[in-house]
């Protein structure tokens, strides 16, 4: 949710509170039978009126908000040729804003990929600057590593004073409970260093997150859902628990108001990438030397594809008719294995690609090989489903696949190795 220039109208409404004083159950006036006037409205003892929850929020904000980072980007992009007809220039500067936070004493700043992403072919924006709380000047930042499929990025500003770097401790998103407090920090609509509060509404909401991958779309991942207000510009900022630990990275909102082409706004349904996902990815981001890291890949490509405007698009068996699947002897849903790359975990596990090529109206399928129907017990019907099962895994981890070959069904354990994390081409 990169924030753009958004006008904000603030309206302040005063609320008056009155009090009626009773004595022996009888309403009293300002003065009665020679008694001293009674003050109708007692002064508020504001410090004493603070609830425990209020004070906790204040303490968390005071302690950890200095670890929040305001991020600005600039990108020179070609102007719309129609605009040039009306006197416009050949290029224009596109600006964006977002948020991030320090994760260590070295000054590494975690944020969303889409906050720092460039236009067009991907990569990072040409100019990235950061500004810290209480500082007027912005400092140039550089990319340490990008992870488009996770919608995560790590940046660093070498020119920052060391004493200004204030890491926020990372929590444990696996132990979250629905109903826990959630504090969101960021820059909604460019209003830098803002704070909102709510609760954790769900701990495992499955939504597409990230960019790229096999289909060019986000990979379905488990996200934290919260009702803490999140808006454009909050992206990349931390979601904290009542102990001030980061439990997630704010990334998306559900906004019916934005579906008509306008700027999305909070509807009380926001999503954050679990911090455990980011923690597992941090070593790879730190070693990326400015490049990209990818989601794990066991080395297979889909064997069922349908024709689309972009060419052949890999799909799952659920797109075929029930009659067609029965005729071909295929399960109701699953990922048809069309290619097994040599030297990969899939090859070593003995997965087999289809070799019998059959074309049908609007697509093709490779038969005679394996069909993956589950990964670690979760249903699989597309490459994105398989990637979702792999996305949090590290080198040495295993994934258990349920595989159908002909009339036989078996369990296959696939162990990820270094080759699972290298860039490969081919579909």
UniProtKB/TrEMBL annotation:
InterPro entries the UniProt entry points to: Chloro_Bact_Ser_Proteases, PDZ, PDZ_sf, Peptidase_S1_PA, Peptidase_S1_PA_chymotrypsin, Peptidase_S1C
GO BP: proteolysis
One GO molecular-function entry: peptidase activity
Pfam families in the record: PDZ_2, Trypsin_2
Keyword set, alphabetical order: Hydrolase, Protease
SUPFAM superfamilies xref list: PDZ domain-like (SSF50156), Trypsin-like serine proteases (SSF50494)
All copies of domain PDZ, residue ranges: 307-407
Membership in a protein family: Belongs to the peptidase S1C family.
Protein's UniProt name: Serine protease
Species name: Deinococcus daejeonensis
């Amino acid at each position: 949710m990169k924030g753009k220039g958004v006008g904000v109208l603030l309206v302040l409404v005063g609320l008056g509170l009155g009090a009626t004083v009773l004595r022996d159950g009888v309403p009293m006036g300002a003065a009665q039978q020679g008694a001293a006037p009674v003050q109708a409205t007692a002064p508020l003892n504001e410090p004493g009126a603070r609830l425990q929850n209020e004070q906790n929020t204040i303490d968390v904000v005071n302690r950890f908000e200095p670890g929040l980072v305001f991020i600005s980007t600039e990108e020179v992009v070609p102007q719309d040729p129609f605009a040039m007809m009306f006197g416009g220039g050949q290029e224009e500067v596109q600006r964006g804003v977002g948020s991030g936070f320090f994760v260590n004493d070295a000054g590494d700043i975690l944020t969303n990929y889409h906050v720092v992403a460039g236009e067009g072919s991907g990569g990072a924006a040409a100019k990235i600057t950061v500004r810290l709380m209480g500082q007027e000047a912005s400092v140039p930042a550089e990319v340490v590593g990008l992870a488009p499929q996770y919608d995560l990025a790590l940046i660093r500003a070498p020119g920052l004073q060391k004493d200004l770097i204030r890491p926020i401790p990372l929590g444990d998103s696996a132990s979250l409970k629905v109903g826990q407090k959630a504090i969101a920090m960021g820059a909604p609509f460019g209003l830098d260093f803002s704070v909102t509060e709510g609760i954790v509404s769900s701990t495992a909401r499955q939504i597409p997150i990230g960019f790229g991958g096999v289909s060019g779309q986000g990979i379905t991942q488990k996200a934290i859902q919260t009702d803490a207000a999140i808006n454009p510009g909050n992206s990349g900022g931390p979601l904290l628990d009542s102990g001030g630990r980061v439990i997630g990275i704010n990334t998306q909102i559900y906004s019916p108001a934005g579906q008509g082409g306008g700027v999305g706004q909070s509807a009380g349904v926001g999503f954050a990438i679990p911090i455990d996902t980011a923690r597992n990815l941090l070593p790879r981001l730190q070693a990326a030397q400015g490049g990209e890291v990818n989601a794990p890949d066991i080395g297979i490509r889909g064997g069922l594809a349908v024709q689309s405007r972009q060419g052949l698009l890999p799909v799952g068996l659920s797109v075929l008719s029930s009659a067609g699947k029965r005729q071909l002897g295929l399960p109701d849903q699953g990922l048809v294995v069309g290619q097994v790359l040599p030297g990969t975990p899939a090859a070593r596990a003995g997965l087999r690609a289809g070799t019998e090529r059959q074309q049908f109206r609007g697509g093709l399928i490779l038969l005679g090989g394996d069909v993956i129907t589950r990964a670690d017990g979760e249903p699989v019907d597309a490459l994105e489903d398989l990637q979702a099962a792999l996305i949090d895994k590290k080198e040495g981890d295993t994934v258990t696949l349920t595989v159908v070959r002909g009339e036989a069904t078996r369990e296959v354990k696939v162990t990820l190795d270094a080759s699972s994390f290298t860039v490969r081409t081919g579909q």
